[in-house]
Predict the structure.
Amino acid sequence: MDAATCAVETFGEEGPPVAAVLGLPALAHDYKVGMLAGASPWARATPPGGTVGAGHLSIESRSARAERLVGATSPVAGHVELHAMTVENGAMRMRPLDDGLEVAPGGHVEIKPGGYHLMFVDRKQPLREGEHVPLTLEIRKAGMVDVGPVVERVEASAPTGRGRQAGPDGDRTR
Ligand SMILES: [Cu+2]
């Protein structure tokens, strides 16, 4: 995969009803696990062809200890990798973060275009605008958390929130 391929992939915005499951205030597209809170997961719709896709979200820590996003899984992909985008000699490149991504105590991490992304490798189905992508994040200490990124337009560079009407998994608020 090259950087161009990578840049075409992204995520939709919106978390699944994890907050509700945990008995926390259910903000439609936010989620919480342990002392970490996340917001606005989103993916970019995938163009015809291709076998990858990418997702984004923000993570905020209210923990006194360092946390680490170590991986993610999704039924729509053979596997999900955490990638960093960097510029080398004027060209965008991406590399896998084999040790995951640290979330410092009280820190804030943005997984967004041009920086980090969660990459769907061996994608099994298209990511269609308005749909939610099942995605589970693995946080080293806090555990697993389901997030349901909403798929935005193929050219989107940030979440719009449009998918909120449909709700996580497309039916939460129906
Ligand atoms: Cu990538």
Summary: The radius of gyration is 15 Å. Residues 1-28, 164-174 have pLDDT under 50 and may be disordered. Residues 3-8 form the longest helix (6 residues). Residues 3-165 form a domain with the Immunoglobulin-like fold (CATH 2.60.40.1890).
